[in-house]
Amino acid sequence: MAVELNEIEEAEVELEEWLVEQAENGVPEIVLIGLLRDYADDIEQLGYVPRMWGESER
């Protein structure tokens, strides 16, 4: 499935906005880094992004 450049840029902007919002709400950056790394590891291991995250995938 081809992804358009504008879709990538939009996803990037949305992720950045979410991260800023979390940091502004007091979530420590180290927690956000850990979350991103854990999800990236899961996605890399599975080879895809699960449409639902649950205990079975973790």
Report on this structure:
This protein has 58 residues and is mainly alpha-helical. The chain has one domain (3-44). The chain has two helices and no strands. The longest helix has 20 residues, at 5-24.
Which parts are unreliable, with pLDDT below 50 for 5 consecutive residues or more? none
Strand content: under 5%
Biggest sheet architecture? none
User: Percent range for helical residues?
Assistant: 55-70%
Keywords:
flat; single chain; mainly alpha
Short description:
The protein contains two helices and no strands. With 58 residues, the chain is mainly alpha-helical.
List the topology elements:
Layout: H1 5-24, H2 29-46
